[in-house]
Amino acid sequence: MRPRLIRRLAGATATRCLRIAENHNQNYDYDYFERRRKFRMQRPAELDLPGVTPSRQKRSRETTAALLQAGAEMLRTHSLAELSIEALCRQVGATVGAFYSRFESKDAYFNALMALAARDGESRLSRMTEDKRLADAGLAELSRLLVRGTIGWIRNHEGVLRAALQHDDTRPDRWSIFKGLARANVANATPILLAAMGRANKAAKTRAIAFGFQVVLGTLVNAILNDPGPLSIHDREMEERLANCLLLLLQAEMTVLTVRPSRGRKKQVRRSQG
Predict the structure, then answer these.
(1) Tens digit of pLDDT for each residue in 107-122?
(2) Model-level pTM?
Protein backbone atom coordinates (compact mmCIF):
# COMPACT_ATOMS: atom_id res chain seq x y z
CA MET A 1 0.00 0.00 0.00
CA ARG A 2 1.31 3.45 -0.87
CA PRO A 3 2.61 5.60 2.04
CA ARG A 4 0.27 8.49 1.16
CA LEU A 5 -2.74 6.16 1.20
CA ILE A 6 -1.63 4.68 4.52
CA ARG A 7 -1.43 8.15 6.06
CA ARG A 8 -4.84 9.05 4.67
CA LEU A 9 -6.43 5.90 6.08
CA ALA A 10 -4.76 6.44 9.46
CA GLY A 11 -6.06 9.98 9.60
CA ALA A 12 -9.58 8.88 8.70
CA THR A 13 -9.49 6.16 11.36
CA ALA A 14 -8.30 8.61 14.03
CA THR A 15 -11.04 11.06 13.10
CA ARG A 16 -13.67 8.32 13.16
CA CYS A 17 -12.50 7.11 16.58
CA LEU A 18 -12.61 10.64 17.96
CA ARG A 19 -16.17 11.10 16.65
CA ILE A 20 -17.24 7.85 18.28
CA ALA A 21 -15.60 8.88 21.56
CA GLU A 22 -17.40 12.20 21.56
CA ASN A 23 -20.77 10.63 20.78
CA HIS A 24 -21.90 10.78 24.42
CA ASN A 25 -20.63 7.30 25.21
CA GLN A 26 -20.36 6.77 28.96
CA ASN A 27 -17.26 4.61 28.47
CA TYR A 28 -15.21 7.57 27.24
CA ASP A 29 -13.65 10.44 29.14
CA TYR A 30 -14.57 13.38 26.92
CA ASP A 31 -12.30 15.76 28.85
CA TYR A 32 -9.36 13.51 27.94
CA PHE A 33 -9.79 14.21 24.22
CA GLU A 34 -10.13 17.92 24.88
CA ARG A 35 -6.92 17.91 26.94
CA ARG A 36 -5.07 16.03 24.17
CA ARG A 37 -6.32 18.49 21.57
CA LYS A 38 -5.06 21.45 23.60
CA PHE A 39 -1.62 19.92 24.02
CA ARG A 40 -1.35 19.15 20.30
CA MET A 41 -2.13 22.78 19.56
CA GLN A 42 0.70 24.14 21.74
CA ARG A 43 2.60 26.86 19.88
CA PRO A 44 6.40 27.27 20.31
CA ALA A 45 6.03 30.26 22.63
CA GLU A 46 3.64 28.33 24.87
CA LEU A 47 6.32 25.72 25.57
CA ASP A 48 8.97 28.34 26.42
CA LEU A 49 8.89 27.67 30.15
CA PRO A 50 11.46 28.09 32.94
CA GLY A 51 13.61 24.99 33.19
CA VAL A 52 12.55 23.73 29.75
CA THR A 53 15.04 23.69 26.89
CA PRO A 54 13.46 25.71 24.07
CA SER A 55 13.09 24.14 20.65
CA ARG A 56 11.85 25.43 17.31
CA GLN A 57 11.68 22.04 15.60
CA LYS A 58 8.18 20.64 15.29
CA ARG A 59 9.08 17.05 16.23
CA SER A 60 11.02 18.16 19.30
CA ARG A 61 8.12 20.36 20.43
CA GLU A 62 5.73 17.46 19.93
CA THR A 63 7.90 15.25 22.16
CA THR A 64 8.01 17.95 24.84
CA ALA A 65 4.22 18.37 24.66
CA ALA A 66 3.72 14.58 24.78
CA LEU A 67 5.89 14.30 27.90
CA LEU A 68 3.93 17.08 29.60
CA GLN A 69 0.59 15.57 28.62
CA ALA A 70 1.57 12.08 29.77
CA GLY A 71 2.81 13.40 33.11
CA ALA A 72 -0.37 15.38 33.72
CA GLU A 73 -2.40 12.22 33.08
CA MET A 74 -0.19 10.02 35.28
CA LEU A 75 -0.48 12.47 38.19
CA ARG A 76 -4.21 11.79 38.25
CA THR A 77 -3.48 8.38 39.75
CA HIS A 78 0.06 8.80 41.14
CA SER A 79 1.73 11.24 43.52
CA LEU A 80 4.65 13.32 42.31
CA ALA A 81 7.03 11.08 44.29
CA GLU A 82 5.55 8.01 42.57
CA LEU A 83 5.89 9.52 39.10
CA SER A 84 8.66 7.56 37.39
CA ILE A 85 10.60 9.30 34.65
CA GLU A 86 11.34 5.91 33.08
CA ALA A 87 7.63 4.98 33.00
CA LEU A 88 6.77 8.44 31.70
CA CYS A 89 9.23 8.09 28.82
CA ARG A 90 7.97 4.61 27.96
CA GLN A 91 4.45 6.03 27.80
CA VAL A 92 5.40 8.40 24.96
CA GLY A 93 8.14 6.31 23.33
CA ALA A 94 10.97 8.65 24.36
CA THR A 95 14.26 7.95 26.05
CA VAL A 96 15.27 9.15 29.50
CA GLY A 97 18.02 11.09 27.78
CA ALA A 98 15.41 12.85 25.66
CA PHE A 99 13.59 13.85 28.85
CA TYR A 100 16.66 15.38 30.50
CA SER A 101 17.64 17.12 27.30
CA ARG A 102 14.37 19.04 27.60
CA PHE A 103 13.90 19.40 31.35
CA GLU A 104 16.68 20.32 33.77
CA SER A 105 15.22 18.05 36.47
CA LYS A 106 12.04 16.38 37.64
CA ASP A 107 11.39 19.48 39.73
CA ALA A 108 11.71 21.69 36.64
CA TYR A 109 9.36 19.33 34.80
CA PHE A 110 6.69 19.70 37.47
CA ASN A 111 7.16 23.48 37.50
CA ALA A 112 6.43 23.42 33.76
CA LEU A 113 3.23 21.45 34.38
CA MET A 114 2.13 24.01 36.97
CA ALA A 115 2.97 26.89 34.63
CA LEU A 116 0.81 25.36 31.89
CA ALA A 117 -2.10 24.87 34.32
CA ALA A 118 -1.74 28.47 35.48
CA ARG A 119 -1.68 29.76 31.90
CA ASP A 120 -4.85 27.85 31.15
CA GLY A 121 -6.44 29.40 34.24
CA GLU A 122 -5.35 32.89 33.18
CA SER A 123 -6.78 32.27 29.71
CA ARG A 124 -10.10 31.22 31.25
CA LEU A 125 -10.18 34.40 33.34
CA SER A 126 -9.50 36.60 30.32
CA ARG A 127 -12.36 34.94 28.44
CA MET A 128 -14.69 35.55 31.38
CA THR A 129 -14.86 39.29 30.70
CA GLU A 130 -15.74 38.63 27.05
CA ASP A 131 -18.41 35.99 27.68
CA LYS A 132 -21.74 37.47 26.60
CA ARG A 133 -23.63 34.78 28.50
CA LEU A 134 -22.39 36.29 31.76
CA ALA A 135 -23.45 39.79 30.79
CA ASP A 136 -27.04 38.73 30.04
CA ALA A 137 -27.57 36.10 32.77
CA GLY A 138 -29.49 36.36 36.02
CA LEU A 139 -27.97 35.52 39.40
CA ALA A 140 -28.91 31.82 39.31
CA GLU A 141 -27.44 31.31 35.84
CA LEU A 142 -24.34 33.30 36.76
CA SER A 143 -23.73 31.10 39.79
CA ARG A 144 -24.06 28.00 37.62
CA LEU A 145 -21.76 29.28 34.87
CA LEU A 146 -19.05 30.55 37.23
CA VAL A 147 -18.98 27.35 39.27
CA ARG A 148 -18.98 25.22 36.12
CA GLY A 149 -16.00 27.14 34.72
CA THR A 150 -14.04 26.77 37.96
CA ILE A 151 -14.73 23.04 38.26
CA GLY A 152 -13.95 22.50 34.57
CA TRP A 153 -10.48 24.03 34.99
CA ILE A 154 -9.83 21.98 38.14
CA ARG A 155 -10.92 18.77 36.41
CA ASN A 156 -8.55 19.47 33.51
CA HIS A 157 -5.58 19.87 35.87
CA GLU A 158 -6.63 17.63 38.74
CA GLY A 159 -3.38 15.67 39.08
CA VAL A 160 -1.11 18.71 38.88
CA LEU A 161 -3.21 20.61 41.44
CA ARG A 162 -3.24 17.66 43.83
CA ALA A 163 0.53 17.28 43.59
CA ALA A 164 0.99 21.00 44.27
CA LEU A 165 -1.28 20.77 47.32
CA GLN A 166 0.52 17.71 48.64
CA HIS A 167 3.82 19.61 48.57
CA ASP A 168 2.41 22.86 49.94
CA ASP A 169 4.01 22.24 53.36
CA THR A 170 7.52 21.82 51.94
CA ARG A 171 7.19 24.13 48.93
CA PRO A 172 4.48 26.71 49.68
CA ASP A 173 5.52 28.69 46.61
CA ARG A 174 4.08 25.93 44.44
CA TRP A 175 0.54 26.62 45.57
CA SER A 176 0.90 30.41 45.75
CA ILE A 177 0.48 30.75 41.99
CA PHE A 178 -2.92 29.06 42.21
CA LYS A 179 -3.90 31.22 45.19
CA GLY A 180 -3.26 34.21 42.97
CA LEU A 181 -5.54 32.71 40.32
CA ALA A 182 -8.26 32.18 42.93
CA ARG A 183 -8.07 35.83 43.98
CA ALA A 184 -8.18 36.95 40.34
CA ASN A 185 -11.18 34.70 39.76
CA VAL A 186 -13.08 36.42 42.60
CA ALA A 187 -11.99 39.86 41.40
CA ASN A 188 -13.27 39.15 37.87
CA ALA A 189 -16.53 37.61 39.05
CA THR A 190 -17.37 40.33 41.60
CA PRO A 191 -18.50 43.12 39.22
CA ILE A 192 -20.46 40.60 37.15
CA LEU A 193 -22.32 39.31 40.21
CA LEU A 194 -22.82 42.79 41.68
CA ALA A 195 -24.59 43.84 38.50
CA ALA A 196 -27.11 41.05 39.08
CA MET A 197 -27.37 41.63 42.84
CA GLY A 198 -27.84 45.40 42.71
CA ARG A 199 -25.35 48.08 43.71
CA ALA A 200 -26.89 48.90 47.10
CA ASN A 201 -24.83 47.75 50.11
CA LYS A 202 -21.91 47.10 47.77
CA ALA A 203 -19.34 46.40 50.49
CA ALA A 204 -21.46 43.74 52.18
CA LYS A 205 -22.32 42.07 48.89
CA THR A 206 -18.69 42.12 47.78
CA ARG A 207 -17.71 40.34 50.99
CA ALA A 208 -20.51 37.81 50.49
CA ILE A 209 -19.21 37.07 46.99
CA ALA A 210 -15.68 36.53 48.33
CA PHE A 211 -16.99 34.21 51.05
CA GLY A 212 -19.15 32.33 48.57
CA PHE A 213 -16.12 31.56 46.42
CA GLN A 214 -14.15 30.63 49.53
CA VAL A 215 -16.78 27.98 50.28
CA VAL A 216 -16.76 26.74 46.67
CA LEU A 217 -12.97 26.60 46.33
CA GLY A 218 -12.47 25.16 49.82
CA THR A 219 -14.85 22.32 49.01
CA LEU A 220 -13.09 21.63 45.71
CA VAL A 221 -9.62 21.68 47.27
CA ASN A 222 -10.78 19.18 49.91
CA ALA A 223 -12.28 16.99 47.18
CA ILE A 224 -9.03 17.04 45.20
CA LEU A 225 -6.78 16.38 48.16
CA ASN A 226 -8.83 14.00 50.31
CA ASP A 227 -11.86 12.94 48.25
CA PRO A 228 -13.93 12.43 51.44
CA GLY A 229 -17.21 11.92 49.59
CA PRO A 230 -20.05 11.62 49.12
CA LEU A 231 -19.34 13.61 45.94
CA SER A 232 -16.15 13.88 43.90
CA ILE A 233 -15.17 16.69 41.55
CA HIS A 234 -16.19 14.45 38.63
CA ASP A 235 -19.79 14.19 39.78
CA ARG A 236 -22.25 16.49 38.03
CA GLU A 237 -24.09 16.76 41.33
CA MET A 238 -21.05 18.47 42.85
CA GLU A 239 -21.32 21.17 40.22
CA GLU A 240 -25.06 21.60 40.79
CA ARG A 241 -24.85 21.71 44.58
CA LEU A 242 -21.97 24.17 44.69
CA ALA A 243 -23.76 26.46 42.23
CA ASN A 244 -26.86 26.35 44.45
CA CYS A 245 -24.71 26.96 47.52
CA LEU A 246 -23.17 30.07 45.98
CA LEU A 247 -26.58 31.30 44.85
CA LEU A 248 -28.14 30.86 48.31
CA LEU A 249 -25.28 32.68 50.00
CA LEU A 250 -25.64 35.63 47.66
CA GLN A 251 -29.43 35.70 47.94
CA ALA A 252 -29.14 35.61 51.72
CA GLU A 253 -26.97 38.75 51.62
CA MET A 254 -29.56 40.49 49.47
CA THR A 255 -32.27 39.86 52.08
CA VAL A 256 -30.20 39.78 55.28
CA LEU A 257 -31.81 40.89 58.53
CA THR A 258 -30.45 44.13 59.97
CA VAL A 259 -30.97 45.74 63.35
CA ARG A 260 -32.27 49.30 63.53
CA PRO A 261 -33.40 51.32 66.57
CA SER A 262 -37.14 52.09 66.79
CA ARG A 263 -38.71 54.00 69.73
CA GLY A 264 -35.92 53.14 72.10
CA ARG A 265 -36.00 49.45 71.16
CA LYS A 266 -34.20 47.46 68.50
CA LYS A 267 -36.38 46.15 65.76
CA GLN A 268 -35.46 43.62 63.11
CA VAL A 269 -36.35 44.61 59.58
CA ARG A 270 -35.55 42.99 56.28
CA ARG A 271 -33.20 44.81 53.96
CA SER A 272 -34.75 45.41 50.57
CA GLN A 273 -33.19 43.66 47.60
CA GLY A 274 -31.13 45.64 45.11
Answers:
(1) 999 999 999 999 999 9
(2) 0.74
